[in-house]
Amino acid sequence: MLGAGVADTMEAMSASLVYLLLRQVLQMLTQLTRDGGAKDVEILVLRHQLAVLRRQVHRPRSRTRRPGGAGRVVAAAASASLVGVLRDPGDAASLAS
89-96 vs 69-87: helix axis angle to the nearest 10? Predict the structure, then answer.
């Protein structure tokens, strides 16, 4: 014997399955009864929707940040300190201590 919770879940799943099957059967019947004009209109509408969605899609952003902002400031400060060290090696010892 199954517990009450399992029985309720099985009942809900079977009701959901019956609903999905009935929906599919009705959809197939409506597709059979449609004339060619209605199908052509549906195709045109779907193509339009696809074109709209293609215009809305943006390219994914890369994970690396573009040079700029805080990264550019840090790079400028680091290069400035390196230029000073490279010009006068005697100052490098004084900077380290």
Answer: 120
